[in-house]
Amino acid sequence: THRATSVMPGSRRSGGGGDPVVVPVGMMMLALGILSLIFHRARHPSIVPCLIIGLVVGGAGLDEKMKLSQDVIVHVQELGMVLVLFFIGSAVDMHSFFKYRKLVVIIGLCVLLMNLGMFCLIGGLSLSHRGITIFVFAVACSIPSQTIISNTLSSDHSELTLHGKLLKGVALMLTALCVLFMTFLHAYLESLQTTSCATGRRSGGGCSARREATSTSSAGVVTASSTEANEYFYSQIGAEIGKQIGLMFAVGAVIALLSRFVLERVFRFFTVDGEMLFIGTVAYNVGTAAICTLIGFSPFVGSFFAGLSVSQLPQRMQIESKIDSFKSFSVYIFLFMASINIRVKGDDLGDIIGKSFLVALCGIVFTPCFVWLTGFLVGLEGRTLFFTGNSLNQMSELSIMISTLAWSSQIFDEKIVAIVIISTLLSITFSCTGQTFEFQIFELMRGLTVLDRLTHRRDIAWESSFCFEKHVVLLGFNETGQQIAEFFRQKGQDVVMIDLDPELHAMLRKLYHGAEVDIAIGYAEKNSEMAAAARGSLTGVEEENESANDMRPGSIPEGAEACGELEEQSQAGGQGPARSKAKKISTASMSFMDQSRNDTANLLHSFSHEGLDLQATGTNIFSVYADPENSETWEAYKLSSAALVVSCMVDGQEAEVQLAKALKQAGVPFMAVTNSNNEARELYAHGCTYTIQQEYLASCLLKKLLLMEVDADMDKNSIFTGHRVHHISNLEEQDQIESLQKLSNFL
């Protein structure tokens, strides 16, 4: 059971305060160094051995033998919580949250609500009949570890994938909700302390220390369990919650103003030296916590707000690099002290471990199911759903923090605290093991691609007019893919883009498909002769589209089979490649745009001043929402019949290798964007036609520019001037085109 003394920071207990702390902490760090070698090879985070060491030390009573006093445990735990929450706040990715806010909010809230329901059921049936205890237990079990998620994405190099961005956004939202919940726990604790002090004064005992009210009833302090104390407690709790909410907004506003007008200038001074940067960061963190404590606000919530403000500074990367080791040490110390207080007796050992396994397994198994269900309803693909759910199914250091605060507030008893900590250890172990073999597990669960086929039904009308023969295919999309699409637009060739990102898919459909006609008609309304020609072309295409056969649901359209009947040669516009019926919209509008190619920028600029809705750039991207790494997608969109396939996938090396083999056999040219020499060598070895190694190409271009610009008689005032003017002109031209600007910001 949990030690009979309070673990809440600030409680006063005797315990031989003069004994050295270096012995117990040093021995635990030595044990951590040994165990970390084992767990690191198993791809498990250091949280796991930290919890194991703390549980062993506390369970065996080794802390008392090493004379580790309770005062040291209490205060080190408080400092650890302050530091850990600051570092969690400083590591958040606000960009991922706001870029995918709709998906993040829907997935995050739905999964949270379903998890709360599941763990409330477990808590009500097996742990307690007290409503607040059940709810706080459910919250503690429903918060994933942002630290583990970030480390996993970093080690797998999948931060830029869709599931990586969703994971960072969902983790941020759930962490913020957890910190908000800590505000209510602090209000509950403050009300409990006020009640205990008031009751103590009435009985003549007084209240000499602020935190002594949080100690257990066995220590002789009257708690809120009596009728009189309950009445006084409930008369205070509402006002205290309102006070804490008001302080939260006030502290948040002050920190936001500091971040906006002060912090950047201050940290600009501290970044001149690594030692100064460390001092400034810790001073800002601990100083904020101290001020929050003095005004009666939670120091832990204040530390998170301070970390959040640091995450928005331009010096963020410098700060992270200088204090990364200190961040890890803070987590270790907090986990040591939190788990040391667990003392499991033989009578309760089996019951606690059994319930801990139940809680951990329910989270491991059902949380991914909740993610898959929610993701299916919003139209996400199977791959994204699997990897997202497989990384959200663990408890976290925040779970231990909530259990610590709940124990101090007399919401949890010793047994529940033990269950939460052991469940956290088990869930992290199971989750990280699953993440180690997640690619193999995903291959065994290919049944998830049923979701992909269901979501494809939404795109049947979109794809029905396309000729899947001798087509150009982009797998994934970035700036390189955009340039490739623009090149083939000038050649009169449409491009199929396949990507898992629903936000990108929606943007491309809105900005590009069929919008060339809108531009043509918008301008032609000022010129009656051009208007008649443009509308005539559009009417003819609409009549042809009305006579097109409907495609059967759930299958790829028969456009490829009808290519021979639909092929036409555009004599007037000089368009060489074959075009389908629906593509005559693009051909007609591009023919019109070619007449005013030299005045495109001014034309589009005039549209914006005339109040016309510019929806597109006149490009030719046909977006398909599907998994570009799935071999079934390659078959469905007939990559083996394509004229060219270009992969711009992030972290898709394994899939690109398999695709290179298949396309080599089919005789289809295949290009792939790579980031390293090793990736390029591997792709060439398996049949890739050409690798677009971006840094290599950039270095080659720079060498050519240097040969052109630099010589013995060079004028330093004119070097690169021509290229600079040309680059600025391209940037300005892009800024004048609204859709290109939106897409560039998105990418």
Oligomer: single chain
Overall strand count = 6
Query: Main sheet?
Result: 6 strands, parallel
Q: Tally the helices: what do you get?
A: 34
Helix content: 55-70%
Rg (C-alpha, Å):
31 Å
| Structural class based on helices, strands and sheet pairing | mainly alpha
β-strand percent reads: under 5%
Uncertain runs with pLDDT below 50, 5 residues or more?
Answer: 1-17, 208-225, 449-458, 514-618
* Strand numbers in spatial order across the main sheet: 3-2-1-4-5-6
CA-to-CA gap between the ends? 53 Å
Which outline best applies?
globular
Give a short summary of the structure.
The protein is 66% helix and 4% strand. The chain is mainly alpha-helical and 747 residues long.
Which features would summarize this protein structure in a list?
6 strands; 747 residues; 6-stranded parallel beta sheet; 66% helix
Folded structure, characterized:
With 747 residues, this protein is mainly α. It has 34 helices and 6 strands. Strand 4 (644-647), helix 30 (653-666) and strand 5 (670-674) form a beta-alpha-beta unit. Helix 12 crosses helix 14 and helix 24 (516-524) packs across helix 27 (584-595).
What is the element layout, followed by pairings?
Elements: H1 22-41, H2 47-59, H3 62-65, H4 70-90, H5 94-99, H6 101-126, H7 131-141, H8 146-156, H9 162-202, H10 227-261, H11 263-270, H12 274-294, H13 299-310, H14 316-340, H15 346-378, H16 382-389, H17 397-408, H18 414-436, H19 438-444, H20 449-456, H21 460-463, E1 472-475, H22 479-490, E2 495-499, H23 502-511, H24 516-524, H25 528-546, H26 563-566, H27 584-595, H28 600-610, E3 621-625, H29 631-636, E4 644-647, H30 653-666, E5 670-674, H31 677-685, E6 690-693, H32 694-709, H33 721-736, H34 738-746
Parallel strand pairs: 1-2, 1-4, 2-3, 4-5, 5-6
